[in-house]
Amino acid sequence: MAKFYITTPIYYVNGLPHIGAAYTSIAADVLARYHRARGDDVHFLMGTDENAQKNVEAALKSIPSPQSSPEGVEDGPSERRPRGGKGEGETQEIVQKYVDAMAAKWQETWDELGLTNDDFIRTTEPRHIKYVEKFWRKVEAKGDIYKSVYEGLYCTGCEAYKTESELIDGKCPDHMRVPKKLSEENYFFRLSRYRDALLKHIDEHPEFIQPEARRNEIVAYIRDHAVDFSISRKNLEWGIAVPGDPAQTIYVWFDALLNYISAVTPSPGFQPSSPSGRGEGEGWWPADLHLVGKDIIKFHCAYWPAMLMSAGLPLPRTVFAHGFFTVDGQKMSKTLGNVIDPVALARKYGNDVLRYYLLRDFAFGEDGDFSEVRLRARYNGELANGLGNLVARVLTMVEKYADGVIHNPTQPPLILRGGDRLVPPLKVRGGEGELWSQYESYIAHYQLDRALDTVWQYMSELDRYIDETQPWQLAKSGKERLFAVLYTLAEGLRHIAWMLIPFMPETARNIFDQLGLGTAEVKKSFKDAQKWGGLKSGVKIERGDSLFPRLA
Ligand code: MSP
């Protein structure tokens, strides 16, 4: 059984989940579900990045005074920070309480959106902190950590140093704030030592950084700018202490990237689930896919692989960076008040509709623009009039002309002539041919929007097939041809539902139910499900409510 270990970025908890984070997470969920449907051994990891200074700022801002409870944060048990975590004082308590409450909210959001992550890692957990310490020591022993004075402009928004040339009017263009001037003695990581090895790896593994445009960007960055970077900060009250030097705190990105391994590594009191047949522990690593936004590829495609090389660990197979979207043409920001809440949208339209819109409207890997107006247009055009209508149309005919029973004709499907077009049943059947291979090839290349497009094209074909074969006419002259056509249509719906499992899981189940297949169908393997003829003769359909009632 192939293993598939997939991760999303771990998100900062200085705010509630917004649609950008939901986009990455939903896309990862689609891929995780797809691989599970194929029968792969899947581990899907999500989590929260809690040791960042921006979380500290948010925590302190959220309370009127240190005595009272943070706004919107319920009093709850606050785990004691494990050894290695820094700051014993008041700030630490406030921040811990804040991150506890926020992490719970992030988890709730993903649960409400129906995401199927197998684990959720918080970087304040002992299993993570222990691993970070162990890793630091390894890299230190390799001679890749040294102390030096650093002077630079630090943007807490990015949690990174900025060069003068990256600033606009002295401000970080992404966060519109003036970075802090820092000058202190820090620990550095010898990234420059790995420059050639990184370029070689990227060159020899075209699948490592995708899409291609991002690969070119990273190659240029590594070639021209990859210098040693600071991996600690002095006198911070929050974060993981540098082993052996508690006055220094490990740089939050150095710590955060390690979540991808800490979550699958056993430590005292923690045993990760292991992929079947692979033994305990580190069997999940290396990750098969890190899904990230394009804003953080430098960290994932330069810093991270160099850190792994230093520690002598294998590199992830692929880092795929998707694009960023604006909202109605504008950058999403709290100041503009256009931050979209994914939960509110999902409650209004349903989880599947949100998933469909996000994955269909944006070419995966490219930038896009989010618009609720377009979401509604796609809903009415493609879900209500498209999918919902096709399902209702087919099942109504099965009820009307075949007493609601599927008949699987024994002879090979008929070649039917409709209008002036010959309808090749094999094309309509799709089952073993083109349709599935196209769909799977798109997913293998992360072209999720195109995979959906393939399904919708197939729906149009089935619609045309109805128009051309005219079952209502066939019903007047014997049952044989009629049943063959109805079977082709109903079996076509079964294939559509299978292709929708990763994208619209609730809808897929609903279609199975309406086809009279129920939960037994989803227990099949993807391979068996792809064969033509899965619908058995004699099955009674159970036509239900319309899948997507039209929006006014
Ligand atoms: N904590 C780091 C990641 C550490 S991973 C080891 C971080 N967190 S974040 O909360 O800022 O999340 C950034 C990610 O959120 C992006 O990479 C992307 O996946 C997602 N997005 C945030 N805004 C987005 C858009 N406007 N559009 C698309 N994705 C967006 O960076």
User: What general outline do the C-alpha atoms trace?
Assistant: elongated
Number of strands: 18
CATH superfamily membership of the largest domain: HUPs
What is the CATH domain class of the largest domain? Alpha Beta
Percent of residues in helices comes to 40-55%
Helix run count: 20
Named at the architecture level, the CATH assignment of the largest domain is: 3-Layer(aba) Sandwich
Biggest beta-sheet profile: 7 strands, parallel
Structural class: alpha/beta
Enzyme class: ligase
Family: Belongs to the class-I aminoacyl-tRNA synthetase family. MetG type 2A subfamily.
Subcellular location: Cytoplasm
Domain Methionyl/Leucyl tRNA synthetase: 5-67, 166-395
List key phrases describing it.
552 residues; alpha/beta; Rossmann fold; Isoleucyl-tRNA Synthetase, Domain 1; 2 domains; 7-stranded parallel sheet; 20 helices; binds 5'-O-[(L-methionyl)-sulphamoyl]adenosine; protein biosynthesis; nucleotide-binding; cytoplasm; Methionine--tRNA ligase; metal ion binding
Write up this protein.
This protein is of the alpha/beta class and 552 residues long. The protein has two domains: 3-322, Rossmann fold, CATH 3.40.50; 378-529, Isoleucyl-tRNA Synthetase, Domain 1. The chain has helices spanning 19-37, 53-61, 90-112, 126-141, 195-204, 212-225, 252-257, 259-262, 297-311, 342-349, 351-361, 372-402, 425-429, 434-444, 448-469, 471-474, 480-500, 505-514, 518-522, 526-529, and strands spanning 3-7, 11-12, 41-49, 119-122, 145-155, 160-162, 180-189, 209-210, 229-230, 232-234, 241-242, 245-250, 289-293, 318-322, 325-327, 368-370, 416-418, 421-423. Strands 1, 2, 3, 4, 8, 13 and 14 form a seven-stranded parallel sheet that branches. Helix 11 (351-361) crosses helix 15, helix 12 packs parallel to helix 15 and helix 17 packs antiparallel against helix 18 (505-514). 5'-O-[(L-methionyl)-sulphamoyl]adenosine binds at residues 9-12, 20-21, 23-24, 49, 256-257, 259, 292-293, 295-296, 324-325, 332.
